[in-house]
Structures
1.
Amino acid sequence: MMEQILFYLIIAFVVFEYATDLCLDWLNRRSWSHEVPEPIRDVYDADTFENHKRYRRVNFSFSQVSGAFSFVATLLVLSSGMLAMVDAWAASITLHPVGRGLLFFAIIGVAASFFNLPFSWYQTFVIEQRFGFNTTTRRTFITDLLKGALLSLLIGAPLMGGVMFLFEWLGEMFWVYAWLLISGFSVFMSMFYTSWILPMFNKQKPLDNGSLRDSIETFSLRSGFRLDNIYVMDGSKRSTKANAFFSGLGSRKRIVLYDTLIRDLTESEIVAVLSHEVGHYKLKHTLWGMLAGIAQTGVLLFLLSLFVTTPELTKALGGEGVQFHIGLVAFGLLFSPISLVIGLMTNGLSRRNEYAADRFAANHADGQALVSALKKLSVNSLGNPTPHPAYVWFHYSHPPLLQRIKALMS
């Protein structure tokens, strides 16, 4: 009886999540401006804005189709007992609980990758290609998939295997040691991702000596931020869109500029964007974000420990007894409403931090240059200048362009 209630709850949550996303998407669609908003008319001509609207219409239609397919596929998998069949197949190969769980997730992961492959291919080689964004070759696309699978095998599998081993060994108290394991891994990745993992996908090289580097170093001294590691990444290998990011802690901190950013922006605009990224570090957004993520992981693992030892959770998806891997899937689906609330909180905090980093950049570099850079980046990516407030509330980790401009100009 209890497993039936849990099953219907899972289905209800899946339907609720899909319906919520659908309503938000349509609200956002209706909020699109038919004319160029006044603050960005200096960078949007009529032809660019029309192209912008076509791009959004195409992406909206594509997201509706792909989302519907994903929703139907999820319902079919849950209602058909397919997860139990996959588990039985894994059990026919090995009865060891850790090996069985890893094989279960491997089968699901491969199936999900094949399901998503046509959509990812169409997005890259049809939509992005049509609007002039894609620079990814088919060879790069395929090698990215293979490298991602290799990383899952070499990093994801041992981490998941370690968590399952701790569960089999310690039972409900596994969450404490799993928390330590995952937290240590998160800190390690934050320090070494750009120097160890990212080079598998993109080349990085130190920024050459010259006027740009001199300007960056002058800003570094003025803001009291020691910046030795400035790298340029070949973002143009996959897209014409531009970006920059900050990573690492202590002596491992690193600023990475896309080569497209250097190509599209002026020197003062690049320094302004860079100062925004430095602002996150100086204001301790990076550190507090990592600590908040660690705390959130601890709470999630604690809640998991309370539910995953309940056999009804496994039975709700067709399993038998207490099985960590099936219980984990069921818990993840039941946790979705709480995850939605957490997402609202973290997105709200992130948007606040973005405003603070913008103010830092305006105070230590050039606020007007940052405004100009934000406009150009929005035009180059064909971003939506007028998203619906509800959509922003649920989905945006950064404030919309017009609100950022207004805050910087005030």
2.
Amino acid sequence: MNISRYEALLVTYTLEIQRYLVKHGATVSDAQDIVQDVLVKLIQADIILSPDKLRPWLYRVALSRFYDLYRRKKRYQALLNEQFYLLYGNQEYVDESSAFLLHEAIKKLDDYQLALIVLYYEEDKSIKELSSIYQISEAKVKTDLYRVRQKLKREMEQADERN
């Protein structure tokens, strides 16, 4: 088998895998990243699989990456919920409706706001470290964190009132 046919087969399979992942819940960008990771792994493994073994191997590796990504996102959301309720709700547990409200409120944050919350509460970065990362004053970091918390609270209350 010549290399150009093998490459064409790889392209066909990767596009097929990408469509499969999107159909099963991955975002387009996540599916593209997963397919790229699979191809990198194939190159790093320094193996040439026969055409009959190539497709199953690609699917197996892609699905493994997809499940890892899903678990990571689920864990991230659980940590975010836990941190939020430790700060704002002295509840023993988080019910599903509250978690849903938080998830919907988080979707409305822009990238900067979300990164600020994640770095501060999940990554345990200090105000000083955040000001250094974003090249802004410590006072601005504190103000922005306060505003993001208030925005989340407001969004959750509004969503709760609608329900």
3.
Amino acid sequence: MSKSLLRKQQVDFILLSCIMSLVAIGVIMVYSASSHIALYKYKNDLYFLKRQGAFAFLGFTSMFFISRIDYHWFRHHTGKIMIIVVAFLLLVLLPIFPSINGARRWIIIGPVSIQPSEMAKYVVVLYMAKSITNKGNQIKSFLYGVLPYLLVSGFFAGLVLAEKNLSIAAVIMIVTIIVLFAAGCKFIHICLVGGFVGALGVAATVFQPYRMQRFLTFLDPWADPKGAGYQLIQSLLALGSGSILGQGLGLSRQKCYYIPEPHNDFIFSVIGEELGLVGCTFIMILFIIFIARGISVALNAKDLYGTILAVGITAVIAVQAIINIAVVTGSMPVTGVPLPFISYGGSSLFINLSAMGLLLNVSKQVKNKRSF
């Protein structure tokens, strides 16, 4: 058997190792961060661990299954997938599903909840990969090469924003800009789109009182330590008390009803308290390696479609990880973006791992052996 054929049958082992390591750390830390709350609320300290573990198993099953499907299959079915995701995004807005903390983001069916916005991030990548491949040099035109993607991505981001989810809507638009840049759009067009998206983000913040309050809290969380600034202050206390080596796994104090729902968006705070700077650095290194391998897969993909897919999927994870860590460390205003593979959330973990199957499939079909 030729070396080239062997190469086509193997996924990127370093990339796969990073994904599995991040999920393993996530499952362990979800248990550590949630055990007190689960024991009090559900009389079972393993409640969140069992659910996260089950979705991790389902996610890995989906990942390995999709990694065996030629990624070009998705190119032929992108339109159908887009219609399904739009239907879900509209369905979640119906009053038949409960509003949680003023937001409508979940389709709840029995014990299972589905968050359509998680699907929207990747369906935009699928659409852009297919369309950019067909567009050729027209990508350098604003009217034919940029505006259509701005409209389509804006449509999906708008539906997500209607769910009161500005953070994921912002992720969709940021990923769109990254993909357009990677596809070869003119820099001036990228700047125009970035400025426009930034202006919309500012408007969405200014005209929504609770978002404006979050921004003001970011500037000075101690101005309202028992109100709007409470969560960020507790996060900083957790990170500070962890010091270099941490308090030890399972020994966080802030997770005991100080940080609200510490197993979700602020799980990185608990990691910092229990595992210290060393643990946080290790996780950030894993994400950096993941991004580097994702870029390598994109550079070595055998066609433009595979390149755009790899760039988009990698960007989704990278943007979310950067935003989450920035929020937890007080580097940007508080927003609800989970830490990929680590924060608690069944549908998020399952969909992210399914997308990883697509990325791994691209890594199996490379044109040469260049790599980082």
4.
Amino acid sequence: MKKFGLVGVLALAAFTFNANANVSGYGHVHLSHLEPAQDASVWLRASQVVPMYPRELAQEGIVGCGVFKVVVNENGETDSIDLVRSVPERGIERPVANIIRKWEWQNVSGEANVAEEKLIRLDFCMGRGTPEEVEQSCIAQSQYACTS
């Protein structure tokens, strides 16, 4: 049921936003730490501000989600970024990978630097409500499976 729910929510959001493209709206990105959990991570982003909505996705009116495997090496540099799954299946990988590559990492564990493989999820949402309403909608979207 959750699988269908995300596809339905995304289809409705995309239709509603694109049908009213001349009406201003808001975009929001929600980041979830899947593995390891944020409090168990060795490396976290140095700046915990919400990632910016990729311009390429916003211009196309693309909403959806992506799960990425990110490897941070022992020097705190991003070694690799691989798309695990996404909705829609195409169009999210390149702009999101460009954002992730720019992140600076810091060791928050208090332990020696070691490489870490992370599984993160980014949800991309658009809406015509207030920024707070769009954010809450995006948080709700992040609870659905990121598969089509």
